[in-house]
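Researcher: Here's the sequence for the chain we discussed earlier.
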Amino acid sequence: MLNNNPPKSILIVEDDETLQQTLAYNLEREGYSVAVATDGQTGLNIARNQPLDLVVLDVMLPQLDGLSVCRILRRELDVPIIILTARSSEVDKIIGLDSGADDYITKPFSLGEFLARVRAALRRNPKQTAAERLTSNDLSLDLVARKAYKGSAELNLSYKEFDLLAELIRSRGVVLSRDLLLTKVWGYDFYGESRTVDVHIRWLREKIEDEPSKPKRITTIRSIGYRFEG
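Model: Thanks. This is the structure I predict for it:
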């Protein structure tokens, strides 16, 4: 049976042309449509002018650095972003995630790991989002339009923040471990660390809690994970 669905579109912004061409070639072999850019400004222009399903973004870029591009894209578009960087410290990873990235890959990395993370970033469950709306007190999530509201005010949630909040609300009252949240939200083949969950929980609290420093909606269960109180 022929697959008539259009291929997923991926933008690679990477100034190392050898790496850029290697990633593009292998993504195209996997059936993806690939656009490329060698500097941050060109990458930003492409992202603004054509529909994309994923952006793969190097940190160290000419004209406009990758973290700046990531912050701008996160304000303007609802598209998953994977950061590529040679920096491996936890602080650098947190900075990347704080800039709005959904995932973070440290160079050097294997092609298998890269492709697995791409699949995880692109994975969505259309049956689950076809006709659902989730609510909890004054919070509501429109899973078709992928919009979240607190009262009448729309919340500016990133791609993964939205998915994480939806998973928490679906499981209200149940303690969810960090590993389980990684599996459910980022995918079974996600290679990230549980710290990724903590960072995204902090972002969510800043947007949905009346007092983020004293959270009442998303509570921490020591040494285990989190529970949505509903």
